[in-house]
């Protein structure tokens, strides 16, 4: 893409009503735009990042046999009354139509997925099954803050699994844990993200969170120094030893929750009488698991984790483009390089704008693509183009015929 074709602009000043690093940098760099508190528009660069993250998640969900669907955001009140959550969820948006019928704007989708599955599942032979979606969620956050880490409308991946017995749920639960770690590793967060024991609420004794270490985090976790399992602070008073290895040595850290998984058991299947006929002809209620990742929250966490004083530093797998090509002065060589990169399917953002070199360098650092290529009279006289990794301090001159090789 040529940068001159982007309708968005970068800005030098931080937005006055944002305190979080992710919101400040994403807004300044033209990745998102704030409509109102907790609600943001994804601009072209931000949407590319979101799609990259979404595709990583999709690949890992498909790898554990997830089947993708798309459920409605507008949900009937009757379903929520069945589970008893219509009057119990403080953050649920409720709307009425002109006929005085009431609906919920989906903050979660248990009330929709269970009656849906009931239409198709009746026998033990139909189980297990695993269904996921990417869908907008709506939650009435009275204190929407921290940029895209805590919003009122946000994109989420939720996977629901349906099982005949607990042992089958347990097996899949472990597969989901591995899949989640694959996701965070591919997003660049592997060494900073910990499986964390948390309260199970009314579902089970424990749930599990995936917590990424960061000073902006709202959670405090205790990480086992021996096996790296963690415990959320809310559980620490009742769980004195590491659930994994029994050690009592922990280190405290602030963290951002980037994912969670629950064993729902029959919490939502029972109210809708989601059951199957077993092999011996008996009726058995289906048990469930659910597995969530906030896609935008993960994007914000990446920014909070990878940045410096100049701007963002995107991990290659989720960067909107791999290369930022800067032309200093209008020259045919930059255009040729741009075309060559496109032909070899190396994603490139080409800064062809007629602005100063200083502005181009500042924008390149702010946007934070993994590689920067600079084509100028100076570089051409020195034998080629300047190549610099966003994380490197040194610039090197490479010959034009070696550009592709250096970026592969």
Number of contiguous helices = 11
The residue-averaged pLDDT reads 95
The poorly predicted ranges are none
CATH superfamily of the largest domain: Bira Bifunctional Protein, Domain 2
Proportion of residues in extended strands: 25-35%
If classified by CATH, what would the architecture of the largest domain be? 2-Layer Sandwich
Count of discrete structural domains? 2
Spatial ordering of strands, largest sheet: 9-10-13-11-12
- Within the CATH hierarchy, at the fold level, what is the topology of the largest domain? BirA Bifunctional Protein, domain 2
Question: What best-fitting shape do the alpha-carbon axes yield?
Answer: elongated
CATH class (first level) name of the largest domain: Alpha Beta
Description:
By secondary structure, the protein is α+β, with helices and mostly antiparallel strands. The chain folds into 2 domains: 3-305, BirA Bifunctional Protein, domain 2, CATH 3.30.930; 323-407, 3-Layer(aba) Sandwich (Rossmann fold), CATH 3.40.50.800. 28% of the residues lie in helices and 29% in strands. It contains 11 helices and 21 strands. The protein has helices at 21-28, 44-63, 77-83, 110-118, 166-186, 233-236, 295-305, 332-343, 357-367, 377-381, 403-407, and strands at residues 32-36, 39-42, 67-68, 74-76, 93-96, 102-105, 129-138, 153-163, 193-199, 206-213, 219-224, 230-232, 250-265, 275-277, 283-285, 287-294, 323-327, 348-351, 371-375, 385-389, 396-398. The strands form 5 sheets. The protein has a 5-stranded mixed beta barrel with strand order 9-10-13-11-12. A 5-stranded mixed sheet has the order 18-17-19-20-21, sandwiched between helices. α2 (44-63) runs antiparallel to α5 and α2 (44-63) packs across α7 (295-305). The radius of gyration is 24 Å and the shape is elongated.
């Amino acid at each position: 893409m040529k940068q001159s074709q982007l309708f968005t602009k970068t800005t030098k000043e931080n937005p006055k009503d944002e305190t979080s690093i992710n919101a400040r940098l994403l807004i300044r760099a033209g990745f998102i735009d704030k409509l109102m508190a907790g609600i943001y528009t994804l601009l072209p660069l931000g949407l590319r990042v979101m799609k990259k993250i979404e595709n990583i998640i999709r690949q890992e969900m498909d790898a554990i046999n997830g089947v993708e669907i798309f459920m409605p955001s507008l949900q009937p009140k009757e379903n929520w009354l069945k589970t008893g959550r219509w009057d119990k969820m403080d953050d649920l948006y409720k709307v009425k139509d002109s006929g005085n019928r009431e609906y919920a704007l989906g903050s979660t989708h248990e009330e929709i997925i269970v009656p849906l599955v009931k239409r198709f599942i009746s026998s033990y032979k139909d189980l297990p099954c695993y269904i996921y979606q990417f869908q907008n969620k709506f939650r009435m956050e009275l204190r929407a803050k921290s940029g895209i880490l805590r919003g009122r409308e946000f994109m989420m991946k939720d996977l629901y699994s349906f099982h005949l017995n607990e042992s089958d749920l347990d097996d899949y639960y472990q597969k989901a844990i591995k899949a989640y770690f694959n996701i965070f590793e591919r997003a660049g967060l592997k060494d900073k993200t910990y499986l964390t024991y948390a309260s199970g609420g009314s579902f089970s004794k424990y749930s599990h969170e995936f917590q990424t270490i960061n000073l902006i985090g709202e959670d405090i976790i205790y990480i086992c120094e021996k096996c790296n399992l963690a415990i959320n602070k809310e559980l620490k008073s009742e769980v004195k030893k590491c659930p994994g290895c029994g050690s009592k040595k922990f280190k405290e850290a602030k963290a951002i929750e980037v994912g969670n998984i629950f064993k729902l058991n029959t919490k939502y299947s029972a109210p809708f009488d989601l059951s199957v006929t077993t092999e011996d002809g008996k009726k058995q209620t289906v048990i469930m698991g659910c597995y969530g990742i906030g896609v935008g929250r993960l994007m914000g966490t990446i920014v909070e984790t990878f940045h410096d004083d100049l701007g963002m530093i995107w991990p290659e797998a989720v960067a909107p483009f791999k290369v930022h090509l800067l032309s200093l002065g209008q020259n045919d060589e930059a255009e040729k390089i741009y075309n060559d990169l496109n032909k070899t399917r190396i994603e490139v953002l080409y800064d062809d704008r007629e602005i100063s070199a200083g502005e181009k360098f500042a924008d390149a650092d702010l946007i934070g693509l993994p590689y920067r290529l600079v084509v100028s009279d100076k570089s051409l006289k020195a034998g080629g183009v300047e190549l610099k990794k966003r994380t490197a301090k040194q610039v090197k001159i490479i010959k034009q015929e070696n550009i592709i090789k250096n970026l592969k």
